[in-house]
Design a protein that fits this description.
About 50% of the residues lie in helices and about 10% in strands. By secondary structure, it is α+β, with helices and mostly antiparallel strands.
Length: about 80
């Protein structure tokens, strides 16, 4: 081998889109609140759960006709609201 390195560049525009994606992620998301004009900043929460627990959560959400995330948010609000 000659030791020559060939770099493979990104497709045109990919770097710019990636930079926009990162900068957009830093901006807080706004949700309308019950109080009207107040902005609610949201944060993402990632947890690991067993397949069985995930399946049970999915069934519960489907049975109640709600999204899994909404169900979890309601449970957290119930438990943490003081």
């Amino acid at each position: 081998m000659s030791g020559k390195r060939v770099s493979i560049g990104l497709k045109p525009g990919v770097q710019k889109r990636a930079e926009e994606w990162v900068s957009d992620a830093a901006k807080p998301e706004s949700e309308p609140s019950e109080e009207g004009a107040r902005t609610v900043v949201t944060k993402r929460l990632t947890i690991d759960i067993s397949e069985d627990l995930h399946r049970a959560l999915k069934v519960k959400a489907a049975t109640e006709g709600v999204k899994m995330a909404d169900l979890v948010r309601a449970w957290i609000t119930e438990r943490c609201a003081s």
